Amino acid sequence: MNNVLRRLDLNLLVTLDALLVEHNVTRAAERLHLSQPTVSIQLGKLREALGDPLLLPGPRGMRPTARAEALRDPLRQALDALAQAVSAPAVFDPARASQTWRVASFDYGESTILLPALAGLRAAAPGTRLAVLEVAPADMGRQLEQGGIDLAFHVGDEAPGGLRRRLMFAEQYVLVGRAGHPGLSRRPTLAEFSRFEHAIVSPDGGGFRGVTDSALSERGLSRRVVLSVPHFLFLKSVLASTDLVAMLPSRLVQDDPRLQQVEPPVAVPGFEMHMLWHERSHRDPAHQWLREHIAASV
After folding, report:
1. Which of 25, 86, 161, 214 counts the most CB atoms within 10 A of its CB?
2. Which segment of 200-204, 247-251, 291-295 scores lowest on mean pLDDT?
3. What residue ranges do the domains of the chain occupy?
4. Which one, of 155, 161, 174, 163, lies nearest residue 272 by Cα?
């Protein structure tokens, strides 16, 4: 069969389908918007390739052979399947969707991007499911390419290359402590800032140095980092119940009544959060809808 397919132009199969419907070369030509001689030539090629006359002259037009009758239904099904495969994707209807989306994000992105989008997502697409995973930045590109995840959210300058991306927002750091913290009634001096007991989020685990320490070292200063944790959520609870302070992204604490924030006495570079996806899903209507929904929720 493979040898036969190599010898056949797809257009010949379309012509055979029309001939099996019309049983007449002239009417088949009209159906295909071709000339009658062209259809006759194509019928000759079909007979040669398939080793069968396919259609024979009869009293009421052309009569299909047994081989042609056997081809009729499988051929129509195959052409219908092929037409569906190459047709433009259907318009995505979130109300009727049943997708399971897999999104990679650490807890900062969960709180600042996914959480604001979740209620609207459930209302607009109630039949869908959302799985949130932690994926190491080094694995994000491969997971997106292979379809293990659909979207990822990460700091722009640490994101893997070769991906589509969209800026979600720019973030800045603020100095945070519990509400009523005695050292945060005003902006502290650099000396006071350095004497505080600090906590830090270390996604890689166990680190006691970050961008704030780099900014301080440029001034010949340092600070006391006494606690390192892997997640922002835990650190917020620590700050709310102790006198520790931390440099945190402002969006993470802006609506938490347990915490207060002040401008730090040292300038610390902020960062940009990006939505990342692979070219393979860029034009998919469902993915496009999900990306636009999330972006509009931030």
Report:
1. 25
2. 200-204
3. 2-86, 97-169+273-297, 173-269
4. 155
* Residue in 25, 47, 95, 105 with CA at minimum distance from that of residue 275: 105
Give the model's pLDDT for residue 89: 66
Could you check whether 2-86 and 173-269 share the same CATH topology? Answer: no
What are the φ and ψ backbone dihedral angles of 263, each rounded to 5 degrees? -70, 130
CA 199 to CA 36: how far, in whole Å? 83
Average pLDDT over residues 59-69: 86
Q: What is the CATH number of domain 173-269?
A: 3.40.190.10
Cα–Cα distance between 210 and 214 in angstroms, integer? 7
- 109 with 273: CB under 8 angstroms? yes
Architecture of domain 97-169+273-297: 3-Layer(aba) Sandwich (3.40)
Give per-residue pLDDT as tens, 148-204.
999 999 999 889 889 999 999 999 999 999 999 999 999 999 999 999 999 999 977
Residue type at 133 in one-letter notation: L
Q: Which residue has the higher pLDDT, 90 or 188?
A: 188
259-262 vs 173-178, strand pairing mode: antiparallel
Alpha-carbon gap, residue 53 to 67, rounded angstroms:
9
- CATH number of the domain located at residue range(s) 2-86 in this protein: 1.10.10.10
Could you read off the pLDDT of 271-291 as tens digits, one per residue?
999 999 999 999 999 999 999
- Any residues with CB less than 8 A from the CB of 157 and at least 6 apart, and which? 271, 272
Taking only Cα atoms into account, the Rg of the chain, rounded to an integer number of angstroms, comes to: 32
